[in-house]
Amino acid sequence: MQNLKALSYKLRRDVVEMIMAGKAGHIGGDMSVMETMVSLYFHAMNISPENRNDPNRDMFVLSKGHCVEALYAVLAEKGFFPIEQVIKEYSQFGSKFIGHPNNKLPGIEMNSGSLGHGLPVAVGMALAQKMDGRPSRTYVVMGDGELAEGSVWEGAMSATQYALDNLCAVVDRNRLQISGTTEEVMHQDSVEARFKAFGWNVLSVDGNDIDAMNAAFDEARTVKGKPTLIVANTVKGKGSPVMENKAGWHHHVPTAEEYEQIMKDLEAHEKEVL
Amino acid sequence: MNKITNRQIACEVLSEHARVDRDVVVLCSDSRGSASLAPFAKEFPAQFVEVGIAEQDLVGIAAGLAKCGKKPYAASPASFVSTRSYEQAKVDCAYSNTNVKLIGISGGVSYGALGMSHHSAQDIAAMSAIPNMRVYLPSDRFQTRCLFEALLKDESPAYIRLGRNAVEDVYAEGNCPFEMDKATTVCEGSDALIVACGEMVKPAADAAALLKTQGISATVLDMYCVKPLDAAGLLNAAKGVKLVVTVEEHSPFGGLGSMVSQVIGANDPKKVLNLALPDAPVITGTSKEVFAHYGLDAEGIAKTVRENL
Ligand SMILES: Cc1ncc(C[n+]2csc(CCOP(=O)(O)OP(=O)(O)O)c2C)c(N)n1
Ligand SMILES: [Mg+2]
Q1: What's B6-161's CATH class?
Q2: Are B33 and A178 in contact (CB under 8 A)?
């Protein structure tokens, strides 16, 4: 079995390379969401380059589309495209690897970038899967700052109205957005209580613990009659003290010095869990 | 090379007024950094409203504040504030006639490689189609100052698009001719008329300079007031020229080009060419690369004029 803990740190390094080469990217949220992405693509979801057009594949929407670099890293690792190509082309003139998900690329279902769109779209996907009696599931990942968008709550309502137990949403609860903490900018406590009040099954776990994420996705699959929300409690910038828990690192591009330190820290983490 | 962005100037002017007028209020949707309004938020915590990532809420709250006598300036990326909160702009600002100023920051293709979700190539068309909504795209920092000074004096809704990057000066310190809702003549010529707005005015002026060295003289009109369009100024400038070229960082539909074509077509029919972004997601690149790719830089504009005279 693949060591997904180590993989999460290796893919973080791929993300950092991408951001350094493209001189752009949302590093903080990429780092916090990595275990969620690895758990989805290497544990929970039935998706691969081979079945990417199979109507029975699982569907995924990255609603916090600014963290596309993390998505590129897992998709490359899955074999959708070579990581070298992503690092070379990301954000460059004429590139298909832009700063938000784009479904001209293999493995990407929906375009995103404007926050608050993913959950309603995922509700539509899960509803279609139900209508067609498919065995497949739909997954969507949102940011915690993103939850301020009213459309999220419209989607949350419709998901329980249609009893979409094939829908699993994740909130990357890193407690930061661009302008500061979520509590300062627009309070979110308690995300758990809010979604419960909307009729969802809610799990709250350590979102940077791959085992906890795997277990949460497994449990979500067993819950019938309602959708599941996984509150992934994470650290923004996870992997190096240089960037951890700092609002300023939402889309900061590391300096050469910061880059050296971050790569050292990520390698150390990787070795530790190998 | 100017390093001061138009959004920094907007923050400066709003701060100057906020110091003496407690009704001047700024609203942001997790956008104070991108709007360059962090200094305002810091200096005037009691006149600053943060709504989080919720653009509909942003514009609705601004309308409510305006109804009760405040002078709200709601600033959020142009892509989101012009379309996510479109209905709030239409109903709560324009239709109810509340004194809300919507500031669309990082307009056009400012966000470059972030892609179409972050580009606002529809904002002029969308906002102009709303009765009682005015649309302004200032060209440089000096004009931005004049425009905000004028807006602070009036009491009806408006949408102002500002770019992300610093733009080279079109005018000069202490010499920025400005009359509200009247286009500004940047330079005068007799062969062609180039009408531009926002960040396209500088390349249009550079194109005219380039054309001059090639024996072609062109007038450049800075139509910062896209709505209400200065039709009289436009017709006056178009008198006698053989060709009118419009330049805008916008979709080819429903923007400056469409409006100029309507006025010229109805009053002084002649060839009008619209230079704009394509009706497609734009190529990945910085705004500079994107402009060059679609002929929206000085060389491209000059070429269009030269080849169509
Ligand atoms: C509708 C919309 N408004 C504003 C933005 C600009 N924006 C991009 S990322 C971001 C902050 C996101 O914070 P959060 O959802 O907490 O994501 P994370 O912390 O995981 O990066 C904002 C405001 C956007 N992309 N879409
Ligand atoms: Mg967050």
Answers
A1: alpha beta
A2: yes
Taking CA atoms, B234 is separated from A123, B187, B219, in Å, by 50, 14, 11
Tell me the average pLDDT across B67-90: 98
CA distance B30 to B111: 16
8 Å CB contact of A100 and B115: yes
The DSSP letter of residue B229 is T
| A88-118 confidence digits (pLDDT tens) | 999 999 999 999 999 999 999 999 999 999 9
The reply to whether residue A148 touches residue B57, judged by beta carbons under 8 angstroms, is yes
- As a whole number of angstroms, the distance between CA A27 and CA A68 comes to 10
Tokens for A186, please give them: 């627009």
Q: How far apart are CA B91 and CA B98, in angstroms?
A: 10
CA neighbours closer than 13 Å in the CB half-sphere of residue B243: 18
Residue with tokens 């400005």: B178
Where are the strands (E) in A22-153, listed by range?
Answer: 59-62, 138-143
pTM of the predicted model as reported, rounded to 2 decimal places? 0.97
The position carrying tokens 């500061």 is A180
Residues of each domain in chain B carrying CATH 3.40.50.920: 184-308
What does the pLDDT look like over A168-187, one tens digit per residue? 999 999 999 999 999 999 99
Tell me if residue B52 falls in helix, strand or coil. coil
For residues B255-266, average pLDDT: 98
Beta carbons of A179 and B54 less than 8 Å apart: no
Calculate the average pLDDT of chain B: 98
Q: Which residues touch A268 (CB under 8 Å, ≥6 apart)?
A: none
Assigned CATH class of B184-308: alpha beta
Residue A17 has pLDDT above 80, yes or no: yes
What pLDDT is stored for residue A274 in this prediction? 87
CA of B27 to the centre of ligand 1 (A): 17
CB-based contact, A245 to chain B, within 8 Å = no
Q: How far is the CA of A181 from the centre of ligand 2 (A)?
A: 8
What radius of gyration do chain A's Cα atoms show? 17
Q: Under CATH, what is the fold of the domain A4-273?
A: Rossmann fold (3.40.50)
